[in-house]
Design a protein that fits this description.
CATH topology of the largest domain: Isopropylmalate Dehydrogenase
CATH architecture of the largest domain: 3-Layer(aba) Sandwich
Number of domains: 2
Number of helices: 12
Structural class: alpha/beta
Helix content: 40-55%
CATH class of the largest domain: Alpha Beta
Shape: globular
Number of strands: 12
Bound molecules: 3-isopropylmalic acid, magnesium ion
Radius of gyration: 20 Å
Mean pLDDT: 96
Largest sheet: 10 strands, mixed
């Protein structure tokens, strides 16, 4: 199979972790006889530096032409005071919208080897295995009106939480579809005791549930959900949320997994006739400028995103399983980066990537 993949390293540790993810892709291509066609483009702060635009038109063209896109991270401290439309993050938000990747899948698993890396008690975290399905192209991130106006005592700011019925239906269907293939439990998150937007969300999710009678649906208010995630994470199978709630809750999920560096994500759009999904794959972590360029960052979020890409955009389930198994092997070997607090000397970003690639090639 020919795999046409666009790599967007972005900013900070994005460059380092995508380099390791590419190593892993190359090992998969070699072992399973696929042809890799990789292209690179600019996104985020790196793109602003070179072109003045966080999402240059060339990046859009390449992303639309690729079978799948792998993104590292965006964001640089020098843009902290810049308005939202001049920031690196705007590049990523524009890309998500352009690709139409409305369902962001963020699996959270407590790996046995990392159980001591979580600040929570082992008996609470052990066995955690959930997937957060975050709506990604609507809600407060994109709703209008938005902006800051006026000055002095008259200064004001507005953002709008906006969803249409079809936007809720399509992301709910992805979540139910996944639940059907897992433990058949779906928890929908909202704030329907306060927000009309959430009332529509809940009503539509209940309607969509009728198409999936074998999935058990329940609802949690987002504040309670934040609490249940740390009190009883094992109760969750699939968690369905709107955009901002999912952004917040998925960082909380990182605590369960031991480190935010562990979390992969897959952002899926429409399904093509072949059954493959249009996909943008990105680790959940940010650009971590404080450790950028030091070969310290955990590449497992990016490498796990490669596994998701192989599965969802290429239908290569055996290859995806091989990547996941190699990751688990390396975790068990204890050769992990500093964020996972290994007993001995921490491994570097490149060492972790190479170890996984070697295992996939069949060596040890
Ligand atoms: C994420 C990030 C992004 C988001 C930022 C970088 C725009 O926090 O993917 O969770 O808020 O969606
Ligand atoms: Mg986030």
């Amino acid at each position: 199979m020919q795999l046409n993949i666009l790599i967007l390293p972005g900013d900070g540790i994005g460059t380092e972790v995508t380099r390791e993810a590419v190593k892993v892709l190359e090992s998969v291509a070699e072992r399973y006889g696929h042809t890799l066609k990789l292209d690179h483009a600019l996104l985020g702060g790196a793109a602003i530096h070179q072109t003045g635009n966080p999402l240059p038109p060339e990046t859009v063209t390449k992303a639309l032409a690729a079978d799948a896109t792998l993104m590292g991270a965006v964001g640089l401290p020098e843009f902290d005071a810049a308005p939202p439309d001049k920031r690196p993050e705007r590049g990523l938000l524009g890309l998500r919208k352009t690709l139409g990747v409305f369902a962001n899948l963020r699996p959270v698993r407590a790996y046995a080897a990392l159980i001591d890396s979580s600040p929570l008690k082992n008996h609470l975290v052990s066995g955690t295995d959930m997937i957060i399905v975050r709506e990604l192209t609507g809600g407060l991130y994109y709703g209008t009106p938005r902006g800051i106006s006026g000055s002095g005592a008259e200064e004001q700011a507005v953002n709008t939480m906006f969803y249409t019925r079809p936007e809720i239906e399509r992301v709910a269907r992805v979540a139910f579809y996944l639940a059907q293939r897992r433990r058949k439990r779906l928890t929908s998150v909202d704030k329907s005791n306060v927000l009309e937007n959430s009332q529509l969300w809940r009503r539509v999710v209940i309607e969509v549930a009728k198409e999936f009678p074998d999935v058990e649906l329940d609802h949690l208010l987002v504040d309670n959900c934040a609490m249940q995630l740390v009190l009883n994470p094992r109760r969750f199978d699939v968690l369905l949320t709107e955009n901002l709630f999912g952004d917040i809750l998925s960082d909380e999920g990182a605590v369960l997994a031991g480190s935010i560096g562990m979390l992969p994500s897959a952002s899926l759009g429409d399904r093509r006739p072949s059954g493959a999904w249009t996909g943008l794959y990105e680790p959940v972590h940010g650009s971590a400028p404080d450790i950028a360029g030091q070969n310290k960052a955990n590449p497992l979020g990016a490498i796990g995103s490669v596994a998701a890409m192989l599965e969802y955009s290429f239908g290569l389930t055996e290859e995806a399983a091989a990547v996941n198994a190699a990751m688990e092997d390396v975790l068990n070997s204890g050769r992990v980066t500093a964020d996972l607090k290994p007993a001995g000397v921490p491994a570097t970003t490149a060492e972790v990537g190479s170890a996984i690639a070697e295992r996939i090639r069949g060596g040890k």
